[in-house]
């Protein structure tokens, strides 16, 4: 199971990112645990300067925008 952290303040873009990641994971049959992280210290620990950010298994893989469907598929398959 992949642990996915959506890093951000809880804004609409962050919520949308988390929802899209879960939807793509379900579509691909990949088991994930999506967690919304709003703690500023944790977000800064990933060196995210622009949200939403996405970390998979503790590694920052995207930040600054809502990733599109194809980008999410690529990230989940890595």
Describe the biggest sheet?
A: 4 strands, mixed
Q: Would you list the SSEs in sequence order as H and E?
A: EHEHEEH
- Using the coordinates above, name the CATH class: Alpha Beta
Computed Rg: 11 Å
Q: How helix-rich are the residues, as a percent range?
A: 40-55%
Q: Which superfamily, in CATH terms, is the homologous superfamily?
A: Glutaredoxin
Unreliable stretches (pLDDT < 50, length at least 5) are none
N-C termini distance: 13 Å
DSSP strand tally: 4
Shape, please? globular
CATH fold-level label: Glutaredoxin
Return the domain count. 1
DSSP strand content: 25-35%
Q: Calculate the mean pLDDT score and round it.
A: 96
Helix run count:
3
Task: Indicate the topology.
Layout lengths: L1 E6 L4 H17 L3 E6 L2 H6 L7 E4 L2 E5 L5 H9 L1
Helix pairs in contact: 1-3
Could you characterize the architecture of this molecule?
With 78 residues, this protein is α+β, with helices and mostly antiparallel strands. The chain has a single domain (2-77), classed as 3-Layer(aba) Sandwich (Glutaredoxin), CATH 3.40.30.10. 41% of the residues lie in helices and 27% in strands. It starts with a strand and ends with a helix.
């Amino acid at each position: 199971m992949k642990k996915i952290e959506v890093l951000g303040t809880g804004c609409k873009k962050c919520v949308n990112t988390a929802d899209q990641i879960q939807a793509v994971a379900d579509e691909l049959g990949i088991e994930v645990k999506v967690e919304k992280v709003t703690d500023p210290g944790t977000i800064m620990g990933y060196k995210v300067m622009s949200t939403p950010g996405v970390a998979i298994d503790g590694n920052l893989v995207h930040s600054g925008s809502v990733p599109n469907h194809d980008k999410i598929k690529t990230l989940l398959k890595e």
